[in-house]
Amino acid sequence: MEQLTRAWDWSKNKDKHWIIPSEESYYLLNRWKDKKFNKFLDLGCGLGRHSILFARNGFNVDSVDLSELAVDMLNNWANKEKLNLKAKVSNMMDLPFSDNYFDCLLAYHVISHTDSKGIVQVLLEIKRVLKENGEFYLTLCSKQGLNFDDSELVKLDENTIVKTEEGPEQGIPHFFVNDDDIKAVFKDFKLITVRQVQDVIVGGENYNSWHYFILGKK
C-alpha cells in the first residue's frame, strides 16, 4: 500500500508568519554553526523561511517540498538574494539525495503529514541521508491536542486523522504521537531532547495546539 501524504495548498495561505523563521531555528543555526555543520536540508521547506535563514548564514542549503508553487516561490526568493540554495519538488518518502549527505536536517511541522506507515518511511529516509552523528530537528503533532479526539474527523489509523477545515491543510493526513509512540518510532536514533509544547496564544489570538519538538542524531 502506498504511504499517504499531500502537499499544502499554498494558494490558500493568508498567514504571513510562514515567511518568518521559527524561534527554534535561531538556536539550531548557532548550535550547528558551532558544530561546523554546513550541508543543511530543509525538509518540507514550504515558502522557505528556514532555507533562507540558513543560506544567509553561510550554510550549503538544499530544500524540498511536495508543493511546486512553494518551491518556485523559494527559488525566486533565493535567486533575488543570490544565495547558495537549491530547492526542488520532492516527496519526503523518497528524497533525491545520496546516502550520508547532510550534516543537519530541519523538518518543522512537516513529517506529521502522513499516516503510520508513511512516518516509518520518512524516518528511514532521514536516517539514510544524514551523515553519521548528523543531527535532525523536527516536530510531531501531540495526541494531547484537541484535534486528535475530534469524533467528526476521519481517522485513518490509531495515530492518524485527516484535517477537514477550509484552508491550505484541508484533506491532509496528520500523524499524532504520545511519549511512548516517540520512543518506539525513534528507536533507531539517539534522542537528545524531546519537548512537548502547548501554543496558547498565536498572533494575539487564542489558540490550542500541542506539538513535540525533537532534537536527535543518527
UniProtKB/TrEMBL annotation:
Domain Methyltransferase type, first and last residues per copy: 41-137
GO molecular function: S-adenosylmethionine-dependent methyltransferase activity
Keyword Thylakoid tagged: no
InterPro entries: Methyltransf_11 (IPR013216), SAM-dependent_MTases_sf (IPR029063)
Pfam families: Methyltransf_11
Tree of life domain: Bacteria
Keywords, comma-separated and alphabetical: Methyltransferase, Transferase
GO term, biological process aspect, one: methylation
PANTHER family named among the record's database cross-references: METHYLTRANSFERASE (PTHR43591), RHODANESE DOMAIN-CONTAINING PROTEIN (PTHR43591:SF110)
Name of this protein: Class I SAM-dependent methyltransferase
Organism: Clostridium manihotivorum
